UniProtKB/TrEMBL annotation:
Domain Cytochrome c-type biogenesis protein H TPR, chain residue ranges per copy: 118-275
Name of the gene this protein is made from: ccmI
InterPro entries tied to this protein: C-type_cytochrome_biogenesis (IPR051263), Cyt_c_biogenesis_CcmI (IPR017560), Ig_CycH (IPR056412), TPR-like_helical_dom_sf (IPR011990), TPR_CcmH_CycH (IPR056413), TPR_rpt (IPR019734)
Residues that span the membrane, as ranges: 92-111
Keywords: Cytochrome c-type biogenesis, Membrane, Repeat, TPR repeat, Transmembrane, Transmembrane helix
Domain Cytochrome c-type biogenesis protein H Ig-like: 300-401
Keyword match Transmembrane: yes
Cross-referenced SUPFAM superfamilies: TPR-like (SSF48452)
Protein name stated in the entry: C-type cytochrome biogenesis protein CcmI
Cellular localisation: Cell envelope
NCBIfam families: cytochro_ccmI
First-listed, main subcellular location of the protein, grouped into a coarse class: other
Domain of life: Bacteria
Organism (species): Vibrio agarivorans
Signal sequence, renumbered to the chain: none
Amino acid sequence: MTLFWVASVVLLVFSTLLVILPAINRKKNQDEALRDELNKAFYKDRLAELEEETDEGLVDNQNELIADLKQSLLDDIPGDAPEQKSQDINPWAVFVPSVVVLLVISFGVYYKFGAAQQVKEWQEVTANLPELSRKLMAPEGAQLTDDEMRDLTLALRTRLHYQPDDSTGWLLLGRIGLANRDVETSIGAMKKAFRLEPDNDDVKLGYAQALMLSQDDMDQETARVLLAELMQQEYVDLRVVSLMAFDAFERQDFPSAIKYWRIMQQMIGPDDHRYEMLERSIESAAIQMGDNVAPGRTVAVTISVAENVQIDPNAQIIVSVHPADGSAMPVAAARYPLGAFPRTVVLDDGNSMMEARKLTDLEQLMVRVRIDTDGNVGTRDGDWFGESQVVDFGEPVEVEISQQY
């Protein structure tokens, strides 16, 4: 607002100078003096011409012509007129009214047709950004009214205009866009946050979530790539798995959707109120798959590590499911990044080794888990491993890695 008043004063001073300078620099009227000088010059030129004509014998009555010329010069001189009084104007008599008129007109027009009230409200909203942000991030953040959400969006856009490198601000604006189902705003804001912090997991998740709402196939494919990267992290956010399940269900990849919902159930536990909702989602996907596929046909394996185990941080985990007789050939297997322990992984028919023999064909099973240090499945020297007891299909499996080859 200070800038507005400074600019107003500068413009008013400039406008006033345009009015008063002509009065200050006004020149007196010199028309009569100029006419006298012109007549004198004409008289002298005509005398010179008469002299030449007389010398050439063209004029006989030179004196008469000179007398006529003098009479003409006298006739052109105006008679005595009352002396005109000086019309000099006091500059202050022009300056003060000019300033008053400019002030009244300028600010009157701005008050009538300008946006003074809107500017004032905008500044109040901008100053209230910290409070609105705290209210949004608090547990009761969903209680923000529509007006407060609009104010928060306006304040954020103002801040980001002056601080375009604020990735947190872009992330927050993107989340507001998601809450309002404003796909264009959410994708644009999340994209800018991702460009500023491409390695930030929260930003990456928000960007993927926004891209999931896009109707563009390339945007959705980019979202899947981002989610796949997040699934490889040591700690996997529940929202990542939820988005993976949602995407799989939308693409009618029902086995994958069921797998991810089972992972979510393992992450939240049966005491969570969302557990039953996930179970209903699993049943719905199973119905979509047909009668030949039973819901819940996955193997959840909880892996822990004994205290004496020394782990290479670059190692990976190989989980294999075997028949109850312990045969070396696994029915299903999967490789995972090391991550943190204890952790739970879920295998299903998608991890089966052979099409003819699926994981869901087993009635009983056992699970082996190995920490692979060299990336070669065929070599085991120095690798740590563990195996479970024989369990019925559908029961939870626990494996502790405590032995070394």
